[in-house]
Description:
This protein has 9 helices and 7 strands. By secondary structure, the protein is α/β, with parallel strands linked by helices.
Amino acid sequence: MFKNPNRAPSNPPTSDANAVRKITKRGGISVCIIVLLVTAILLFSYRDSVSHDQKRIQLLGGTTRTGLPPIYAKLAYTSHSPKIVRSAFTSKLGQWIFGRFQVIYTVDLRGVRVNADVKAALKIAKDFEHVNELILYQSAVTDDDLAILKTGFPKLERIKLNETAITDAGIVHLRDLPELRLINAQRTAITDAAVPDLAAISRLKELNIAETQITSVKLIRSTHPICHINGKLVTLSRSSDVHRASGQRSPLANR
């Protein structure tokens, strides 16, 4: 019997369509599980390494702060990732897995008074890929110690050097850090000689130079017009003590 060429093709049975949907759904679930398991395997050894590094920093008197790895946000919340991948990473299982495989973002050495310990901690932290904050407040860090920043810490955004013995020679090591945005140098020994190096920091957004020997920030303001500069208590000269005692505004505010 000849088939009628004008006859519309018949729709597949409903049972077949349901079977296809079930297979597709099961396949998607399987892919999600595989993605999560592979991720867990890859990160297992990394977790042990991070825990070991944290203990090494603690033995030297410092602490660390951790958070979810950057790749988690990229895979879980960006439209560039396939929907099935986003679903896997934002699921309870995905959040549980990544919650146990965190990375070190902050190295805090505040109050570490032994210079050898500061040196050792910085040497360890240099190999931490994601560190974006370094706290050296009231530590025994020296100008020479900051030279290590040139060979490590590529993602450093914030450094706190307040109340340390850092001088102009130490600030030189900060000028080529590509991501540096915040510097706290309050109560350090820096002078006007450090201003060109501070002005050369390409992404500088916040600078605290209170109670230092810097007397003018014109160059910094010209290169970073939106940078917030805290220098209202800066020592300008012997006469600056008179301004403080009288409650007058520091002349630096207009410089």
